[in-house]
Amino acid sequence: MSFKILIVEDQELYAEQLEMLVDKLGYEHIATVDNSTHALSMILKNVPDLILMDIHIQGSHDGIELAEMIHQSHLIPIIFITSLQDDETFQRANKIQAVHFLMKPFNDLQLQRIIEMTVSRLQNEDNNLKQNPPTEEWENDFLFQDHFYIKTRQKLDKVSINDVLFLEADGHHCWIHTSAKKFLVRMPMKELSNRLPKFFFIQTHRSCIVNIQKIQSVNLEESVIVFENTQAPLSKRNKEILLQKLNWI
Fold first, then answer.
1. Which helix (H) or strand (E) holds 197?
2. What pLDDT, on a 0 to 100 scale, did the predictor assign at position 161?
3. pLDDT grade, residue 143 (50/70/90)?
4. Parent domain of 124
5. How far is Cα 72 from Cα 144, in angstroms, rounded to an integer?
6. What's the number of domains the chain is made of?
7. Alpha-carbon gap, residue 102 to 110, rounded angstroms
8. Which letter, b or e, does each residue of 181-204 get, where b requires 16 or more Cβ atoms within 10 Å of its Cβ?
9. How many alpha carbons fall within 13 Å on the CB side of residue 121?
10. Chain-centre distance of CA 82, in angstroms?
């Protein structure tokens, strides 16, 4: 299993140390960024399996604030790396439920052990879920993490939340549209939406909730949202909210 790692570090010396160890361990180094804006942009393009992140970084958000934003749309494990030792910083970071907290300065062996322990645990959790799918009530046909396991007959399809284009209400059921196919889930759209990250999923119509990351264009004249190979409706009531959200990001 290939593991993709994103590094968020604004000190060149530490960034190079992290990059060299990630490469040495054979994991895929997606990129190294030094600020919150570039980190969010990179995650939209290529979702990592793990983030190594300094708390004190450049940009309008520090590492803890950035982690909160990331976790609104992706439950990506984060290892915090910092030279800050005050209780307030630790308490803030602890609320994010980081998988580890590494203090600077550190040596390669400390860093290697933390990364390998984290990767091993995450791989075991993923394998256990595949081999032993939940036996709890399956009437809703899926399990949420940063992806879905949608049950269709006796098969489980893994669908990343990032691949979802939009949700479409169909009575007491809901269609989950992706670029590849769509899935029918036996759950009302309102209930399903409560389990989605609010940062990227917003309601654009009484029967539709869209992933704004996947919007290619908005046809204001025809009141439709255009994706790669499909469209979703846009109501007058929700048009202003959508436009404000798109301008904000």
1. none
2. 81
3. very low
4. 4-131
5. 13
6. 2
7. 8
8. eebebebebeebbeebbebbbbbb
9. 10
10. 23
